[in-house]
């Protein structure tokens, strides 16, 4: 059964020219793109997207980072797309958790600047897709 997940290439990934690399890994895995948009992020969208982190010490700096440059938002589709993309991304911390061979493990050094986001559950995917692509 096919599943959808919301993927972001964050401002660090866009600025470093890694959009093609991320999309290429998604496509080589066999997943497909159901939506793709390069866009700037309003604070309200960032707050909604990261609502579960409201109150955490890094929340404000996370919002500043994610609204500080263009992101590429994608809806990625395929069998077990949520887990499949999270495996491609690697763990949240690019050094301590993500292993080489993953996007974060290959290109990241700091937890905030971890290049990509992927929904962590079917509920999150549904919620996040509605935030980024309300007309999908
Ligand atoms: P993401 O998968 O988009 O979900 C929440 C984001 O918060 C995470 O990736 C990181 O970019 C960021 N984050 C998580 N933990 C920390 C932390 N300890 N310090 C700074 N940023 C963090």
From TrEMBL:
The gene is ndk. It comes from Actinokineospora auranticolor. It catalyses: a 2'-deoxyribonucleoside 5'-diphosphate + ATP = a 2'-deoxyribonucleoside 5'-triphosphate + ADP; a ribonucleoside 5'-diphosphate + ATP = a ribonucleoside 5'-triphosphate + ADP. Belongs to the NDK family. It is an enzyme of class 2 (transferase). This is Nucleoside diphosphate kinase. Major role in the synthesis of nucleoside triphosphates other than ATP. The ATP gamma phosphate is transferred to the NDP beta phosphate via a ping-pong mechanism, using a phosphorylated active-site intermediate. One of its GO terms (cellular component) is cytoplasm. Gene3D superfamilies: Nucleoside diphosphate kinase-like domain. Its EC number is 2.7.4.6.
């Amino acid at each position: 059964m096919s599943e959808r997940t919301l993927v972001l290439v964050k401002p660090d990934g866009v600025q470093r020219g890694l959009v093609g690399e991320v999309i290429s890994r998604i496509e080589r895995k066999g997943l497909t793109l159901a939506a793709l948009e390069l866009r700037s992020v309003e604070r309200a969208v960032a707050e909604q997207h990261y609502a579960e982190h409201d109150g955490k010490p890094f929340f404000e700096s996370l919002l500043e980072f994610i609204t500080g440059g263009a992101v590429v938002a994608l809806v990625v589709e395929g069998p077990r797309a949520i887990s499949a993309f999270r495996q491609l991304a690697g763990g949240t911390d690019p050094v301590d958790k993500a292993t080489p061979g993953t996007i974060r493990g290959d290109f990241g050094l700091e937890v905030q600047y971890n290049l990509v986001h992927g929904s962590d559950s079917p509920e999150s995917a549904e919620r996040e897709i509605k935030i980024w692509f309300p007309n999908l």
